[in-house]
Amino acid sequence: WTLSFQVAETSLHVPAGTFTRITGGSHVPLQDLPMLPALGSWQVLFAIQLCTASAASAASKQWTAWHHSEELGPPSPDNGWERLKRSNSFQSFDWENATEPNGYRFYHPDATHYTLGNLSTAEERVEVWHPYSESQADGAVGAAFRGALYNLYKDNLTTFHINLTNPSWPAIAQAEICRNGKSCPNVMLIGTSQLPGRHASLNVQSLDSFLEQHVAKTLQRLEDDFPAGALYDYNFQGVWLGIPFMADTRLLRFNKTTLQNMGSELPPPYGMNPREWTWTKLADLACNISRRHGNGTGLNMVSDWDEDFKLAMLMAQDAGNVLTQTDHRYPEEHFCALNTKSFRRVVDEFWKRIFQEQCVSAPDGSGYWASGPAFDEVLRGMPVRKRAAMEISKYSNGDKGQHPLGFFFTTGISRTFATGQCQEGPEVDLVAGSEVQEELGDSKSCSVLREKEGNHSVSSCEELLLDLDGDTFAYNASSGECLLLACNEPWKLRLLKKSAAKETMQLHSTLCSEILYANAPGKYSFAAGAGLMMPKPATAFICKGEDMAECRFYAAQNETCHGRCRAEGLDCDGGSSHVSHVFLEEEVCSGTISSGTGAMCACISPEMAREQRRQSEAWRIMMELADPKKPWILQANMKKDAILPPPVSSILESPPFTSERWHPARLALRQGMPSQYPNKPLAEFSRIKHEKPLRVALVRAIYGNMSTEQAINDGCAILDQALAPCNRKNWQDDPRCTNPVDGLQGCPGGTFLAQCAVAPGADSCKECDAGRFQPDRNINASCEKCPPGRFYPESGGVMCQLCDDGFEAPSPFGCTKCQSGWTSKGGQRCERCPAGTFENNNTCSSCPRGTHSEAGSPDARFCEMRNIVILYSVLLVVFSTALMLVVPIALGRSIPVQDIYMEDGCVVVKTVGPHRIMAWSPVKIKVMLWGTGHSELDSRCRPFGARVRHREEFWLLDEDGYFLDTAMHASMGSVRVCCPYTVFCTVPGHLPVGMLLPALVGATGFIIWELRASYIDKDLLWGTLLSLGLSLVTATALHSYLWFSSFQLTPIAQRHQRFRQRLRQLHPKPQPCSRGPDRAIAAGKLWDLFDCYQDFIRHRTMHYVAANILLPLTEPEQLSYAEIVGPSTVQWFVSHFWGMAFKDFISSLCKHAEGEYYFNWRSVAFWVCSFSNNQWNVRQELGNGDPFRSSFYLALCSPSCKGTAMILDEAAMPLTRSWCLFEVLQTCYLTGERDDFEGLLLCTPTGVLQHGGAGVDAAVGLAKRLSELSLEDATAAQAEDKAMIDDCVQSLCGGFPVVDKFVRDSIKEVLLKVRSSLEGEFEQLVEALDRLPTSRSCLPAIVMSSLSFARSCSIAGPPSSELEGDVGSQRQGSLEVPRPLRRLQDDLVQDTAKGHVLGHALCPHDAVSGAEPLGNTRSQREKGPVTQSRIASPS
Predict the structure, then answer these.
(1) For a Cys staple, 518 with which of 267, 1279, 1348, 1361, CB 3.0–4.6 Å?
(2) Dist. CA 841–CA 853, nearest whole Å
(3) CB within 8 A of 1140, min separation 6: which ones?
(4) Which H or E run contains 997?
(5) Rounded to 5°, angle at Cα 1157 from 1154 and 1159
(6) What SS3 class is residue 17?
(7) Model pLDDT for residues 497-517, shown as the tens digit of each residue
(8) What is the pLDDT of residues 788-840, one digit of tens each?
(9) Strands, DSSP E only, in 500-616?
(10) Measured between alpha carbons, how far is 1193 from 1000 in angstroms, rounded to an integer?
């Protein structure tokens, strides 16, 4: 006490309304204490004492209850806390202690607010408001809030102090918040009819940015889970202001027994047609019940607050009426719209009737409204005292009274009279005794929710049943045991059979209750609710005097930003971008910290930082409460006395709410209609509900001595008074002219009150237009216009401004810059500069000596000869562009190669487009080639010589100037003329670069010098040069693009592109496979490749094919060609010589395949090294130096390999190569080891020699060559390869002689088969000639003349099918032509046809049309198109 007294009385300066923490000594606002008003300095002593006591109680991690400023203590029955009767069905959490009470399952009936956390240590305050009372009826709402907040902040109670307040429904709508030092809650639970008033006062924070962040974080729109009515209740003018949390509707219950005994048809959905179910029909049934069972028994209603208003408005809307309407002349002014003929009929046929015939009563059986002086005042007084209509409200919950006999309205699915005892009879049997659980366990219908428990009453069993969302319970009256069940459908109760037992149990079910729920009469039902709202401060946070973008600071490191912000007394926040650009109104943004590109920091005021944290915590709380995956929103709606599903679509459309029991509630929520609909939500609606004009109209119409029309007029007068506009003549004293935004009279400066506005407000106070101003608060209908010479360029002007020098104000909307050549001082009118001067920075400067200008010259350029300057500028652009085009040629620009081929024994290079080499060059031309795929062309250390043959062709020369005669072939790569030969040897047009380049350089330099001397304003010169530079950069970029594109437009590159596209269609996803036998390639795929590229291949070898075709095709995937097109399992191993013509190679394989499979030759699989090996990993394919691990060996020794097919030419070149010798050696091994191995087959373009497919001359010539050839003389590119293979041969028993004998035996077998085949054909021809009749026509001369030719050589070409031969024989009558002859005929016919025999399925190109093949000589072009040599298809 002494210390406290010293703090209060000594010279320490303690601000008024604060207290001092003894430990820290800092001043803390008293408003931070829970629910304490601001105190004066003489009350600080009491504040310190109270703070010390509060800190001690708040130190625990449990909720503390308060009654205003009186602490009620933590959860404990000793402190007056009570357990919620339905808390046993709450979801459990691991932070609960089963032996201790907590604020989640307990409540205090006298509490006005609850706190959590230690105020003395907390850094942040969190405050939440909700209006539901602390009682057993509505306590589940507060319990859900306390559970959610504890679950959210339980681990941060040293940092956060939480205050959960229940300020009542009127305070939620009308209490001042977030201004004048009043509390600003993080979250408020507010009714849908109260939200418009808060919105009009600018107390509601928009949630759009938070919803957008939610979408970005979760990829789900939170609004999609809102019910349909939320768009009207919580979205104003496209802005979301709240999140639905509590549902509210009205349900109509009735006693079906009463109606059935009267013989009346049940209302829908149980019997009556919904179209016949009207409010008049309800009145008829209610009055019939009252006449039979007593007055007031037909219809029970409550008049609490505005229940009569809600029902009356629901009837009015059903009759097509609205609460208010507007005049098109004054769209902002609303007035009553209820005094219509249709609504008067509603009052007469329903309200007056049920009261006059005594068909209605309160649920307790008494009168509907409370009688007394207030009722007499409402009935007779005019004007009616504002609280009089409210004082006659009567709230009486009749659900706990007498069992109802008629109809009655409820606010949800009531817990009383929810079940009824199921009587034994045709519908349901009684369930007996101790075996009922076993009986139900075997049932396929009902499920057990809870085992049997004792000591229960029927009402407690019913309560437990509803908490568990069940519908049936079995009750033993003697022991108090009840078994809770879920059956869901009435017919399922019939499955419960009566069983023998000792004690009988009664069956109670909602399905057996005589109290049912009917659809609301008419088309609609009432719907409202409450939602989560985020309040916002009344002060707007803006950035004053600077552009928004300039209010952000960027720094390479956060430390830089923090240091600058701290120097200015501001906080630095680097995380939240949605508030990082705002400042307090009195602060001005400063400059940029640095131009780094690191993390973004924003300097914000302490107030804005605090507001940002408050909003962030508010959104966390709202997401915690509204999360459908958590129990809070479900328990808040379902654990009250009146049960309703929560306003969440995903929950409403899922079990148990899809069952029949919930149908009336779901229907009411789906077709619910707010009382204001379809009018725009009124900010005055909360005031209207308190003054109750519609209740006044109903009381006077029912009990007053006046007409219905007059009574409704009296109610409308009260409604119009509540909506009346403010008095503009006496606005400073009229309370209706109070601006809800700031609580002051009228509109602030810079705004005016719209002509049609009712009162000042956020929407009615309009900003002054540009060119107008309003200096003070006012109620004027317009703003004043700026005087002449002054302006205001934006809206909301408070004072007009003067123009700067060089500007004038021709209108009040803004300043206009004086046009060029005109000047102005002090905001006066602009004047023209006289002749001989020019405008320079708002002054008239004289032109240089010797120059002249006209009056109003805008700059110094008008003092010069302008025509010559323009001419020089144009010439500068032209010459500079030409110079940029010539420079690449002078530097030796690469040109793509189209083809390199041999003609007349010389190497010819053909380029894509002109090569620009001079034919009459004074010096020797030197060129370099690369990328051709030919080792001798790419690997030369010295350049080649060149001699022009054509504008696109030139010969290659050696170092001595002689024509190159080495066979070189390529169809790719590039060529360039070596520097400095380009200066003398290249021509862009008709002049050498050496002459054109100096001329362009000199002309460009001269023009720049002249421009420099001509321009007086050097800034204009640099502007021209900058434009010129940009144009040159653009030209360079375009030139480079076209140059690179030319490499993609070569004929073979285009063919590669088309062929790869087709391959991707046939085999879209090539996959690597193991080396060896699984990488064979089908003969048809080899033929397709040759068919597509044969106009490129022509007579070229495998060296050309591998470098120019296979490598480009396999480069993207880095696989073998067989893997690209789809590999097969090897059937034949191919041994061949790369120097052999590729067309002969293909022809040999196809002939072999035809002999193997005549009709399915395309599927024969060959292992060919160039196609089956991965050319991008040759070392691995060769076994890394070990031939027995190479792919060759693996494929040849595969069990699927039938034999070796050696492709031979006339010189038998494969037998001169060491690797082929290795393959022959392995073939020799396999022939002796495997019976199914066919050995070595010798293949030629005319056929397989062992099969008799070759002519006599070819077989004999080859035999002669082999007889002279020794395999020991075979060579290899690498000496170590030859030595290794020779060692392998020597290791064989017998060595080289054995291998030579193996090969000679093979050719010997060939000669024997050729002789046998030739003798057989001669015998067939002789027999055929003998059978020819002499009277028939002779064979065609062309056939007879070809017989000798057919004997000597095999003519390539596809044989005709046997079917075609038979048809030909029948056409010739009795003449039977032998097969060899028929084949000869077919070949001759096909030889006369033009184009290729095969179709071009894989690669369509112009070879079929007879176009000139690439690389034709000039002599051939002069003679005309050259017919291509045809490689016959074996198809």
Answers:
(1) 267
(2) 17
(3) 1101, 1102, 1207, 1209, 1213, 1214
(4) helix 993-1014
(5) 85
(6) coil
(7) 443 233 467 888 888 888 898
(8) 778 888 888 888 888 888 888 877 777 888 888 888 876 677 888 887 788 88
(9) 504-509, 515-518, 525-533, 553-554, 571-573, 600-604
(10) 66
